[in-house]
Design brief:
The protein has 3 helices and 9 strands. The chain is α+β, with helices and mostly antiparallel strands. An 8-stranded antiparallel β-barrel has the order 1-2-3-4-5-7-8-9. A hairpin with a 6-residue loop joins strand 3 and strand 4. Helix 1 packs antiparallel against helix 2.
Length: 244
């Protein structure tokens, strides 16, 4: 099931850090070889009705292929634009209000061409994701001195089969949070945190405040976009394909 990057107020905030939830059948048949004595099949005119129908179907098929190629090319172009815009924003920390609006507009364009209509049923969620951009202040902590923020990369591992998620901060705090994911529909999950670790070692019991919801609005082999119940935007990329 699912993905996320979701932030809530947790006991970890007392340690000057934050955690976030960031989820052929081949049929063979004998080949019949015609007898060398059999007559060759009659030649059909290119203008015959059967050939015309075949040509028409071929044109329709090619039109369908061209449409799919155009659709795919469009989504890749939008995705590239999004990645270029967020690249210099330090995971969102350096984004101005205008830049946040620009990112949101491009993200919505990509969401509009999302081909995965039921992301919580997709194996594409399984793996380790890196948080590239967010608007969540619970993660960015821009009001704190930089030394008291999570300055290293932030990851999230998702297992669709077990409906589990794990958030992992790196330098300097190495905090971790794990959560159960409860599907609310094919795109949205309720998130309940059940365990935290400070500095990756010290266990901290989760409290009732560790809850939230997250909707997966775009998913492909490389990128995931989610929106939290408080309106925050999360953009992640796949770094390792595996399950917990």
């Amino acid at each position: 099931m699912a993905h996320l990057i979701l932030t809530v107020n947790t006991p970890l905030q007392h340690h000057h850090s934050s955690c976030s939830i960031h989820n052929f059948v081949s049929i063979s048949s004998p080949i019949t070889h015609p007898s060398i004595y059999s007559r060759p099949p009659p030649t059909r005119s290119l203008l015959s009705s059967n050939n015309y129908g075949t040509t028409k179907n071929t044109r329709l098929w090619r039109s369908g292929v061209s449409f799919l190629q155009l659709f795919s090319t469009k989504s890749e172009s939008i995705k590239q634009e999004l990645l270029e815009v967020i690249a210099p924003l330090d995971r969102g920390t350096d984004a101005t209000a205008e830049q946040q609006e620009r990112v949101d507009q491009i993200a919505r364009k990509l969401e509009a061409v999302n081909k995965i209509k039921e992301p919580l049923k997709s194996d594409l969620l399984n793996g380790k994701w890196e948080l590239l951009y967010t608007t969540s202040q619970s993660i960015l902590q821009t009001k704190r001195p930089k030394i008291l923020r999570a300055n290293g990369k932030i990851y999230q591992s998702i297992n669709v089969d077990t409906l589990r998620a794990q958030n992992m901060e790196t330098w300097p705090f190495f905090n971790q949070a794990t959560a159960n994911l409860v599907p609310l529909n094919n795109k949205r999950v309720a998130v309940k945190f059940d365990a935290f670790k400070v500095f990756g070692l010290i266990p901290v019991k989760a409290r009732g405040s560790g809850r939230g919801q997250l909707e997966i609005t775009y998913l492909d082999e490389e990128l995931r976009i989610s929106r939290g119940n408080e309106g925050n935007l999360f953009i992640l990329r796949m770094v390792v394909i595996y399950v917990l």
